[in-house]
UniProtKB/TrEMBL annotation:
<protein>
    <submittedName>
        <fullName>Transglutaminase-like domain-containing protein</fullName>
    </submittedName>
</protein>
<comment type="similarity">
    <text>Belongs to the UPF0162 family.</text>
</comment>
<dbReference type="Pfam" id="PF13371">
    <property type="entry name" value="TPR_9"/>
</dbReference>
<dbReference type="InterPro" id="IPR032698">
    <property type="entry name" value="SirB1_N"/>
</dbReference>
<feature type="domain" description="Protein SirB1 N-terminal">
    <location>
        <begin position="55"/>
        <end position="200"/>
    </location>
</feature>
<dbReference type="Pfam" id="PF13369">
    <property type="entry name" value="Transglut_core2"/>
</dbReference>
Length: 284
């Protein structure tokens, strides 16, 4: 897919970003709410009724789970049977080419998505039902975990919720990085880390499609609203503004970023200032 069928939210954009920032900075950020606010930023057709409907659908799916089926493996099996088998949530290689695969409201309708968005569905449905569930950010492939470390059970929502053996997890990591699986890779992922990774995926999708610099820009803007983010995102935003022909704004952002960098890397700061001067020269 080379373009998005979604109109931008335009007038609602500032309010959506305000709510996104407020939720991200709350004491207990709501993963589904953040994903849906992100989805509304991407798709101007997602209004308040649509956001509410997506939350209701997660509640409805949770209501289909059996009441406290047992230990971690029983929970993983119950989620697989409900979401993977009964409702058909899973992913395919083609889903990596679609922006909808990173938008929760569309994943709930299509029952297709990237591993991390399918994992969000698993997490939110399981959490509502009282399961001991959390995300596990394996390199290159997001999965879900159930239970404490000594009883941990991993499931792969992209593969319909297949329960993973230790060897399966090792192969996933080796395939993505060539490195062995380490215990640190199996720790629970914070909701804000999940959202940051979703936004990284969207930025990667848009970077491969230069005509979608609009998507790159809002994904960077939302990333900058997270309480913790890499400083280089400001440089990326400045470059996007220049790419989009907003030379004055881009140059100003480059100059501001150079001031930040100057304290730790003066030569890098000077290179950024040169980029700012080049951007301003494009106005002549």
């Amino acid at each position: 897919m080379t373009s998005s069928p979604f109109p931008p939210p335009c007038e609602r954009s500032a309010e959506l970003r305000r709510r996104f920032a407020e939720e991200a900075r709350s004491e207990r950020p709501d993963l589904a709410a953040l994903c849906l606010l992100l989805g509304a930023q991407a798709d101007g057709t997602l209004d308040e009724a649509g956001i509410d409907a997506a939350q209701v659908e997660l509640d409805r799916l949770a209501g289909r789970l059996p009441y406290r089926p047992g230990g971690p493996r029983a929970w993983a099996g119950a989620l697989r049977e409900l979401l993977g088998e009964r409702y058909g949530f899973h992913g395919t290689a083609a889903d990596y080419r679609r922006l909808e695969s990173s938008l929760l409201q569309h994943v709930l309708v299509r029952r297709r998505g990237l591993p991390i968005l399918l994992s969000v569905v698993w997490l939110e449905v399981a959490r509502r039902a009282g399961a001991p569930v959390y995300g596990v950010a394996l390199p290159g492939h997001f999965v879900v975990g159930f239970g404490p470390p000594e009883e941990q059970v991993l499931a792969d929502p992209f593969d319909g919720g297949r329960v993973l053996t230790g060897t399966d997890a090792e192969l996933l990591v080796a395939g993505a990085t060539g490195a062995p699986l380490s215990p640190s890779m199996l720790t629970p992922a914070d909701p804000l880390d999940v959202v940051a990774r979703i936004l990284n995926n969207i930025r990667a999708w848009a970077a491969a499609r230069p005509e979608r610099s609009d998507v790159s820009l809002w994904a960077v803007d939302l990333s900058l609203l997270l309480p913790s983010h890499p400083a280089r995102l400001r440089h990326e935003r400045a470059q996007l503004l220049v790419q989009r022909g907003e030379f004055t704004a881009g140059a100003a952002e480059l100059e501001a970023y150079a001031e930040v960098v100057a304290a730790v890397d003066p030569p890098a700061a000077e290179r950024v200032r040169q980029q700012a001067r080049a951007a301003r020269a494009l106005l002549n």
